[in-house]
Amino acid sequence: MHTKGKAFFLAFFFAALGILYGQSAERTRPADDLLFKIAVYGPSDDIFIWWGHAALVVENTRWNYSRVFDWGIFSYPSDDFLTDFLRDQISYKSTVDSPDMQMYIDEDRDITVYTLDLDADGKEIILRYAEDNVLPENCYYNYHEFRDNCSTRVRDIIDMGTGGRFKEWALNTPGRFSIRQHLRRFTWFRPASDWFLDFLMGQDLDAPVTRWDEMFLPVELGRGISDFTYTDSLGAEHKLVTSVELLNASKNRPPVLNAAPRRWPGDLLLGLLSAILAAGIRELRKKRPLAGRIAWGLCQSAAGLCLGISGCILVYAWFFMKNDYIQQNINLLFINPLFLAAVPLGILSAANKLNAIKPEKCLRVLWTYAAAAGIITQFLRILPIFFQQNQSTAALILPALVVFSFGAEGCGPLFPARVKKDGGVGLTG
User: Fold this and answer.
1) Separation in Å, CA 238 to CA 229, 292, 364
2) Residue 331, Cβ neighbours under 10 Å: how many?
3) Which of 56, 140, 314, 355 is the most exposed place for a label (fewest CB within 10 A)?
4) Residue 21: Cβ within 10 Å count
């Protein structure tokens, strides 16, 4: 073959090869080799993982490797998460790493993986955002337990990948429960923690929510993406999730309930028992005056200490913490630092120091206020602006407060009448 013929043949060959490659590149995009999955992990032992965890998994099917984008990594100054949480010193960030499912299996946690059906445009949008989000200058973010966490970050990028359709659907779909009820689905088997968290949370957590709001929980994120159907950029309608795989099922952990159990009937029973005990101590004064007086005074001191410390926690949370969901707590009306005054008053009453302070009368005024305020909180919920579900707190505490409000001498008047020397009637004190 002549030199010119060879040159022409090579030019034609490479031109044809370029055309074929270009057509192939149009048909196959890099994102077509990527598989996007959402990993939802069940609860763990530490308090900050009681409600589970979620992450984005990106698998490259051509080169057979995977990456996990995680928005739930935190760092804090001390070794005590709770202390740094109260100080608002916890910083969260996003990271990318190789998947390590064995770590979660060793912790006996549920692992459910949802495979997503996304078009190439959606995949590229998600991958670009995720990779940009793990850069050192972008990885830290202001964590919020219910509006910005590991689960909501994954929820948001799924919405990006569906062109905003996921959020539109979720915002227009009512949620099943309030945030308070959702939280209790995970804490029901820890009675003390369950009650205290319920007591600490303000009324914002009882407001109606949408499916979008509910997906602050990883399990609700999994449920949400499983229910969602959308239309892709080519006009085809299909389900977002193509498959659900349970990689590990917890063997020794209590289950996450479908709905939180009602707790106030049990709390009311405990409250009535404590009230009966308090009434028994008060009646002991009639048979054993000395022992009864000491027991009754110390009982009131102990009650004042518990209520006062609990009230201090509410005041600190409301005025000194940035967590908005702890604020606007109606429990502060009848559980507040004022009741610390019952500690010295109860001791004075037990010691029978009937001086100008008149500890029994002061205590009775204090407890009457507390009982009345607690009862009022239950009636306030009739009004639309008061909707905090604090029945459990009231059920546990109010019965004893009512007994304390009767005072040491039973149900007599708070300010009993006395007879004057001239036969007239006046008020004591």
Assistant:
1) 6, 74, 67
2) 24
3) 355
4) 10
